[in-house]
Amino acid sequence: MVRNNSIGVIITDIVIYAFLAAFTFLCLSPVIHVIMASFSEPLPLEANIGLLLTPLGFTFKGYQLAWNIPGIRTGYLNTVIIVVSGTLISMPMTCFAAYVISQRNWWYAKFITVVAMVTMFFSGGLIPTYLLVNNTLKMGDTFLALIIPNMISVWNLILLRTGFMSLPDSLTESAKIDGANDFTVLFRIIVPLSKATIAVIILFYAVGLWNAWFDAMIYLRTRSRYPLQLVLREVIILNSTRTTTAGANQVLQSPDATDLNIYRRLIRYTSIVMATVPVLCFYPFIQKHFAAGVMIGSLKG
Q: b/e string for 163-186 if b means 16 or more Cβ within 10 A?
């Protein structure tokens, strides 16, 4: 009987691991395909219609071409400025707001929480928001239009508030008895004890700002201010022949658009990798905090 149970456990483990391996492969196969395609030769890549697990040839020509597309370099710089400045502004504001609504003895904390949560389901609409940002606040065609209106994410606010509320009340009470004010309590006690949750919130803000393109498309009119995602949208989604061939001309020194068109698919793949890899670099540094931060933020409401 023990032997049968052991065989059954072994078979069950094999089935589970096989399923997980197949599921992992399905999840990773698009990423592997894009990375392998970005290092492939353009002619075999144009003829390929299947999944790539190895490069078709090996070349860095796609990255050389993509880097010379007009707007890519300034797009990278603009995106870094937006991500860094936006995260540096959003995190303190989110901490302040989360601390206020996490106070159980402040009668208006629950009211502010409800008002904030309503905005998750109802908004003022695209046109009123555009008129407010562009005409009233005069932030059109500036990076402020991409940062200030989205300064605090309600989802991140609720997550951080719940993380703050999971800490014992005795910590803040004892600090206030010793004469600490709210700023001291927040930055000397609560924030150091909430590093895991704050690390996750930083990741959410940074990734959200890195991937954002819709607000830039609406508010920005000067091409030199375009973030990376808006430039890549022209290359990948709009399939701009002018943008692609202009960058290729600088590298290949060829005026023939027919020759240059074979590189368009390769450039799309390399552009995707160039936009994705910097974000993936964040995860190894925050991975140890990620699960802990999300779990802490979901324990107590």
A: bbbbbeeeebeebeeeeeeeeebb
Where do the structural domains in the chain lie, given as residue ranges? 1-59, 72-224+281-296
pLDDT at 85 over 50: yes
> What whole-number distance in Å separates Cα of residue 240 and Cα of residue 246?
10
Take residue 265 and report the two structure tokens written for it.
Answer: 């698919």
Three-class DSSP category at 238: coil
CA distance 69 to 251: 10
Hey, what CATH class is 72-224+281-296 in?
A: mainly alpha
Q: Which two tokens stand for residue 72?
A: 């890519």
Q: What is the rounded distance in angstroms from the CA atom of residue 282 to the CA atom of residue 263?
A: 30
What pLDDT, in 10s, does the model give residues 175-222?
888 888 888 888 888 988 888 888 889 888 998 999 888 999 999 988
> Which residue type sits at 162?
T
Helix (H) or strand (E) holding 255: none
String of b and e for 36-62 (b: at least 16 CB within 10 Å)?
bbbbbbbeebbeeeeebeebbeebebb
Residue 120 CB contacts under 8 Å (≥ 6 apart), including other chains: 154, 155
Output the pTM of the full model: 0.80
Distant-in-sequence, close-in-space partners of 81: CB < 8 Å, separation ≥ 6: 143
Work out the end-to-end distance of the chain between its first and last CA atoms, rounded to an integer number of angstroms.
47
pLDDT digits (tens, 9 = 90+) for 235-248: 766 555 455 555 55
Q: Given CA atoms 24, 28, 29, 32 in this order, what sign does their dihedral have?
A: negative
